Amino acid sequence: MVPTRSHALILIDQYLKPGSLKKHVLATEAIMRALARRLGHNEDLWGIAGLLHDLDYEETKDKPQRHGLVTENILKEKGTEESIIQAIKAHNAESLNIERKTEMDYALTCAETITGLIVATTLVYPDKKIASVKPKSIRKRMKEKAFAQGVNRDLIRLCEKIGIPLDEFIDISLRAMQGIASDLEL
Questions:
Q1: How many whole angstroms separate alpha carbon 53 and alpha carbon 24?
Q2: From the CB of residue 153, how many other CB atoms can be counted at a distance below 10 Å?
Q3: For residues 145 and 129, what is the distance between their CA atoms, to the nearest angstrom?
Q4: Sequence ranges of the domains in the chain
Q5: pLDDT tens figures, 5-25
Q6: 3-state secondary structure of 143
């Protein structure tokens, strides 16, 4: 079963504190929906994976080897579609010692990673508005290793594993986040 967005938001409210993490999952959802559209996949399925991917983060932030596994248990109990659970675990493949296999696995990993780079780029703009950000600024910041050091550029480049060149992926991601600017308070 694919949870409805309203059910997913209830889970988010149950498991995540208000603040930047909630904005991060909303941004990831927006990018995942845009990627699903671009690749011809189910937008709701991909969007829900994006929305729920960090459901257990508050509990597992100091235990990366558990991140995704707690969410797996929560979602299995609710009868959630296995492909959603697999993609959620795969976004933390390195810590869980598993492989990414599907387009959704790769998409979720690169989508959730680029959100940090886009937000960091937005915050160095004078007006701090995502509407002002240009794709070329994201591309420039992508090359600056000292900028947003916590953002793993190699994970962003996984977009190429799903047939989307980096420049196009940046454009898609930025537009998706600009579309929900008010939710992101950017």
A1: 10
A2: 16
A3: 23
A4: 5-184
A5: 999 999 999 999 989 999 999
A6: helix
Contact predicate 72/54, CB 8 Å: no
Count how many residues are written for the chain. 186
Scan for tokens 């208000």, then name that residue: 18
Q: Looking at the chain, list the stretches that DSSP marks H as alpha helix, in order from N- to C-terminal side.
A: 5-15, 20-39, 43-52, 57-60, 69-77, 82-90, 93-96, 103-124, 135-143, 153-156, 166-178, 181-184
Residue with structure tokens 């994970």? 155
How many C-alpha atoms does 19 have within 13 Å on its Cβ side? 5
| Two structure tokens written together for 93 | 């493949």
pLDDT at 1 over 90: no
pLDDT tens-digit series, residues 38-67: 999 999 999 999 999 999 999 999 999 999
As a whole number of angstroms, the distance between CA 27 and CA 23 comes to 6
DSSP annotation of 2 = P
Distance, CA of 56 to CA of 84 (rounded, Å): 14
Identify the architecture of domain 5-184 in CATH.
Answer: Orthogonal Bundle (1.10)
Q: How far is CA 30 from the centre of its chain?
A: 8
Give 3-state DSSP helix, strand, coil % of the chain, rounded to 5: 70, 0, 30
